[in-house]
Specification:
The protein has 147 residues and is mainly α. Helix 2 packs across helix 4. Pfam families: DUF6691 (PF20398).
Length: 147
């Protein structure tokens, strides 16, 4: 049952991404092109998502002590802004601005057969592997933190 619910929710998300045009990198890149072919529709997609998500989270966290299919909510414990957060955010933003994809939009674009989505996902997975290696390595001492 859990996997069916996850599949249905993911499918609904992917359908929303495709219908809104966010699986089209040109539409996203036009949002960033303030001096040229600016397309503000991404603002409306984000605002619509917030209008649904914010009240939804408020209701769920008030009424439930744990998710339906898990023992506890997995929320970030760190509250400070550090180099990893800033670096990750900058990397995400730069990648989004260059490729026109974020991971949430690239995955539905795979189903559309967009070759640039396949390239983006391959680069994303490579970046994840590199980031894991960097975070597990102590470059100054030349040895791994993980034994």
């Amino acid at each position: 049952m859990r996997y069916l619910v996850v599949f249905l929710i993911g499918s609904l998300f992917g359908l929303g991404i495709v219908i809104s045009g966010m699986a089209n990198p040109a539409k996203v890149l036009n949002f960033f092109d303030l001096a040229g072919t600016f397309d503000p529709s991404l603002i409306f997609v984000m605002a619509g998502a917030l209008l649904v998500a914010v009240p939804g989270y408020a209701v769920i966290f008030r009424k439930r002590s744990a998710p339906v299919f898990g023992p506890e909510f997995k929320l970030p414990k760190a509250r400070q802004i550090d180099g990893k957060l800033v670096g990750g955010s900058a990397t995400f933003g730069i990648g989004w601005g260059i490729a026109g994809f974020c991971p949430g939009a690239a995955i539905p674009a795979l189903g559309l057969g967009d070759s640039s989505a396949f390239i983006f996902i391959a680069a994303l997975l490579t970046g994840i592997l590199i980031a894991r290696q960097i975070s597990n390595a102590d470059f100054f001492a030349g040895r791994s933190k993980v034994a």
